[in-house]
């Protein structure tokens, strides 16, 4: 196990990752569907949103992972709370935390929980309080593959580590065959692709390998690929394209990229049955996480070797970071109102349609309670 606190400052989640600045305003936008072109925001009525005393501009920035979730939330929220203008800039987690710690924003989105020194820094901005982590958005990292004749493939952390470290180089290797006794594995070279760019997806994937197979993965988790060998491609779209067009290929990517007929690996965990990469199974894994933050902080510790049935172990969590006390008086009503909607039943209901994993009920209930007490 490991706190999701290390090296996760530029996570891109699925086709939802973006670059550059994004201003989502209360005027709303019609171009706020999910990554497949659907309208993820159509699931929840705007009438259920409590605007309270919210008004004016609400400035926030950070994780690009939650871009389409924020997009869908703002569309609904702006329809109900016309006196509020929400501006979310997906600059990346690190930049978002920096802006928050400098007092430039009401809250930040981050793909990892605040580190101890960042919590100390936040006390300068959060008068009589500190920055806290509110887990709001999750999602699975899928392992896509292209092996002719093999539509169902099971791998475990040890085998994945050896494949991506060039220690297992052929698809009919004994270790793979043992996990797939009914598969007709071809005598075919493995083409393992990793990201050429620094990526939070790489960081989270290598954290899983390090935590679940420490004897077989000698490298520290990092946004930059550290292992030897393999081939690289730019972005999740790049590695996904390589898997689609290359016989024998395998790579890791956000679930929304593993589509159009791409097969994905089921992961053998401590549970009785292998677990597929689905939104529901990612939510189950997050449900097995422990809250390790103190006080009102809800930072999570993920279990990378879950024994719960249907808990997919390679997941991402994005937090909203806000002051527990000492929030700016002029933006506090809007902050609480918008965060309350994000964490509400209606708000969380938008996530699956947008390619995200909603927070499990036991976690999101604590998030709602914490938001109500912000001051």
Model description:
Keywords: Phosphate transport, Signal, Transport. It holds the Pfam family PBP_like_2. Belongs to the PstS family. Phosphate binds at residues 63-65, 93, 111, 199-201. With 375 residues, the chain is an alpha/beta fold. It folds into two domains: 2-139 and 318-372, D-Maltodextrin-Binding Protein, domain 2; 140-281, 3-Layer(aba) Sandwich (D-Maltodextrin-Binding Protein, domain 2), CATH 3.40.190. The chain contains eleven helices and 14 strands. It has helices at 67-80, 93-101, 116-122, 157-164, 174-179, 200-212, 235-245, 279-287, 332-343, 345-353, 361-372, and strands at 2-3, 56-62, 84-89, 107-110, 131-146, 154-155, 191-195, 231-233, 249-254, 263-264, 266-267, 290-291, 300-302, 315-323. Strands 2, 3, 4, 5, 7, 8, 9, 10 and 14 form a nine-stranded mixed beta sheet that branches. The chain is elongated and about 65 Å long. The two termini are 33 Å apart. The model is unreliable at 1-45 (pLDDT under 50).
């Amino acid at each position: 196990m490991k706190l999701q606190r290390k090296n996760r400052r530029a996570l891109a989640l699925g086709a939802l990752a973006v670059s550059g600045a994004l201003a989502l305003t209360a005027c709303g936008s019609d171009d706020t569907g999910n990554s497949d072109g659907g309208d993820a925001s159509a699931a929840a009525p705007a009438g259920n949103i409590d605007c309270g005393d919210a008004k004016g501009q609400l400035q926030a920035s950070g994780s690009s992972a939650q871009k389409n979730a924020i997009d869908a939330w703002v569309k609904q929220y702006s329809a109900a709370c016309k006196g509020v203008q929400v501006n979310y800039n997906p600059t990346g987690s690190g930049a978002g935390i920096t802006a928050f710690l400098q007092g430039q924003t009401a809250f930040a989105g981050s793909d990892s929980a605040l580190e101890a020194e960042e919590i100390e820094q936040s006390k300068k901005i959060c008068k009589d309080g500190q920055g806290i982590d509110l887990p709001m958005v999750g999602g699975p990292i899928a392992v896509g593959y292209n092996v002719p004749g093999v539509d169902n493939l099971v791998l475990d952390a040890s085998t994945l580590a050896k494949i991506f470290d060039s220690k297992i180089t052929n698809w009919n290797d004994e270790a793979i065959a043992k996990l797939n006794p009914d598969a007709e594995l071809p005598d075919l070279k493995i083409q393992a692709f990793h990201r050429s760019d620094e990526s939070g997806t790489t960081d989270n994937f290598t954290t899983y390998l390090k935590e679940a197979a420490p004897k077989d993965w000698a490298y520290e988790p990092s946004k930059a690929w550290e292992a030897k060998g393999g081939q690289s491609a730019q972005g999740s779209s790049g590695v996904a394209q390589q898997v689609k067009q290359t016989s024998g290929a395998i790579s890791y990517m956000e679930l929304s990229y593993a589509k159009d007929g791409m097969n994905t690996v089921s992961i053998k965990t401590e549970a009785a049955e292998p677990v597929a990469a689905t939104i529901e199974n990612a939510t189950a894994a997050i449900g097995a996480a422990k809250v390790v933050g103190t006080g009102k902080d809800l930072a999570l510790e993920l279990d990378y070797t879950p024994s719960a049935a249907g808990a997919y172990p390679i997941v991402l969590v994005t937090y909203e970071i806000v002051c527990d006390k000492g929030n700016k008086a002029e933006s506090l009503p809007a902050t609480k109102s918008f965060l309350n909607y994000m964490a509400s039943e209606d708000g969380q209901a938008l996530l699956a349609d947008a390619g995200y994993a909603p927070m499990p009920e036991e976690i999101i209930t604590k998030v709602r309670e914490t938001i109500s007490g912000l001051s």
